[in-house]
Amino acid sequence: MIVAVLGKGLSEASFTTVVLYTTELYPTVVRQNGIGYTSFIARLGVSITPLVILLEDVWKLLPQIIFCTAAISSGLVACLLPETKNRRLPETIEDVEQTSESSDSLSNLEKNDTILKPLTSNGNEKEI
Question: Any keyword Membrane (predicted)?
């Protein structure tokens, strides 16, 4: 019972994290379409999951291997996503393209990216 509750809680936490992070990655002009697309893919995965369980008849460990491979590969791919902490959210597709170009080298990061510092005591943001 403890493992089931813990698994459900952690899966809900990961789902919430994915939804919040996804909204930060898409530019404003296509954010609604992007969220819809990712929601569709997530629901498609939920629909296919019961069929993967049927592969247990082929080999007892096959469903576990498929689920573990999917989890590990998605975690590794998530490491390739850009950091969004203290950065402005993209407003247009050009902003995303500029961010991806500027992340290619560290010298461009200093020139092109605007990183926000925490609010100062007078309430103003400082850009570096």
Answer: yes
